[in-house]
Write a structure and sequence with these properties.
Layout: H1 3-33, H2 36-62, H3 84-109, H4 113-143, H5 147-158
Bound molecules: MU-OXO-diiron.
MU-OXO-diiron is lined by residues 16, 19, 49, 52, 93, 96, 129.
Amino acid sequence: MDKKVSALLNDQINKEFYSAYLYLDFANFYEDKGLEGFANWYQVQAKEEMDHAMLMYQFMHNNSEPVTLEAIAKPDKTFSALIDPLKAGLAHEQYVTGLIGNIYAAANESRDFRTTQFLDWFIKEQGEEEKNASDLITKMELYGDDARSLYMLNSELAGRVYSAPSLVL
Ligand code: FEO
């Protein structure tokens, strides 16, 4: 594997674990506010992020690439309004989409089609993650100011169930 592609993938493992940590902190915020449904939604999201990290970890090992685990940064966001984590979540996913695109471009440039094929799943996943994040903001803007509606939205988000990723390596 091209050295640049390998380094970017290794770095992305760390960033996916950071995403998990960030979303766990979002869950933390909502737990403190008594919104356990919102907290559940982000706890499930945190598990998905760990899956993303582990898929990359395994892909690297399957291709005999070394993996170096670095320190995971402390989540650095502070929130006041209930909608704040939702907006930060969308911005974060847009950032991650850019990172995945950078790895894809580097792999494509080095004609590493095994890696581009692997990343195809992540390209699609980022589309879903941005849509999910955007939909949450829309719902919160529509219903978040009314206590009864917020209660129902919280109940809806409590129903999110974790399922393992569909990607098989
Ligand atoms: Fe691993 Fe939310 O993208």
